[in-house]
Amino acid sequence: MGRRIGALAFDWLIASVISFAFFGYEPMATLGIFAVETFLLVSSLGYTIGHRIFGLTVRPDTGGVPIVGFFRGAVRTVLLCLVIPAVIWDGDGRGMHDRAARTVIVRL
After folding, report:
1. What stretches of the chain adopt beta strand conformation (E)?
2. Which of 18, 37, 90, 106 is the most exposed place for a label (fewest CB within 10 A)?
3. What's the rounded Cα separation, in Å, for the pair 72 and 97?
4. Tens digit of pLDDT for each residue in 32-84?
5. Model's pTM, two decimal places?
6. Which residues touch 17 (CB under 8 Å, ≥6 apart)?
7. What DSSP line would sit under 42-74, residue for residue?
8. Which of the pair, 93 or 3, is modelled with greater confidence?
9. Whole-angstrom distance, CA of residue 84 vs CA of residue 60
């Protein structure tokens, strides 16, 4: 759990710095930047900058192709930004945003 929180905090820090530079740290701009960063990177690469630094990657839970894809990436990002699904975990330690998107976070 510590790696996930660290990765999330690092990604939020990146979004905050960009928001401060361009918008004077507007909270909604920060959330938008965070969402765009998360969506684009997870959908295409399978990890955000924070995930990579903390040795994590996001994979589909169905096996097969290791790319999350844009639909799953969008579902995961929207629910992550809503916060509540991300702080509710199942018995495996997966957040509801990962369950809904059918993704799983694994160590590299």
Report:
1. 56-60, 103-107
2. 90
3. 10
4. 999 999 999 999 999 999 999 999 999 998 877 778 899 999 999 999 999 88
5. 0.90
6. none
7. HHHTS--HHHHHTTEEEEETT-SS----HHHHH
8. 3
9. 21
